Amino acid sequence: MPRSLRVRSIALFAGGALALALSACGADDSPAAAPSAAGPAASASAQPVLMMKDPWVKTADSGMSAAYGTLMNTTDKDITVVSATSTASPMMELHETTMVDGKMAMKPKEGGFLIPAKGSHEFKPGGDHLMLMDVKTPVKPGSEVTFTLTLKDGGTVQFTALGKDFAGGNESYQPGTGGSGMPMGSPSASPTSTG
Question: What is the pLDDT of residues 136-182, one digit of tens each?
């Protein structure tokens, strides 16, 4: 092969190799950039660790109210909810319903609510609930109230509940009745009481 042809072949080969190397670098950069760009979208579309099914909140112009629904754990690990906040009230407590001095009473849930792996926990009138202690933004029928749950590991989960009229309960905070409990009305009314 003549020298000039060999030089051209080497130049063409080197140019082709350089073009392939540059396109390969570009190809390597693109996939690397794609996951980071797609990362937030993928995590946003991923199923959340906790989901609140059928959430609702008792209507109230002021004072106390409560939120209900079924909290579902979609993971393989137990999750503990340790606190809650809402757009309707500056102060919330996690409440459980227990027997105090022979009467049904609600009180703050020590240690929070454990939602078992692949399990659920129901918040319902007369049972466990998310208590709004000092409603500042009135909750009307159909109002949307955003709640943020804080988990034991520091993570948070948000959900929105709709305002719904509910006639049960109408209890008031009465410290000193069975410790930190709140009376829930007569024992016969307790299944439909709020709280």
Answer: 999 999 999 999 999 999 999 999 999 999 976 544 343 433 333 33
The 3-state DSSP class for residue 49 equals: coil
Structural domain spans, the chain? 1-46, 50-192
Domain 50-192: give its CATH code. Answer: 2.60.40.1890
Q: Residues of 126-159 as b/e, b for ≥16 C-beta within 10 angstroms?
A: bbbbbbbeebebebeeebebebebbbeeeeebeb
d(CA 83, CA 76): 22
Give the single-character DSSP code of 169. -
C-alpha–C-alpha distance, residues 75 and 117, integer Å: 6
Task: Assess contact for 193 and 183: CB atoms under 8 A.
Answer: no
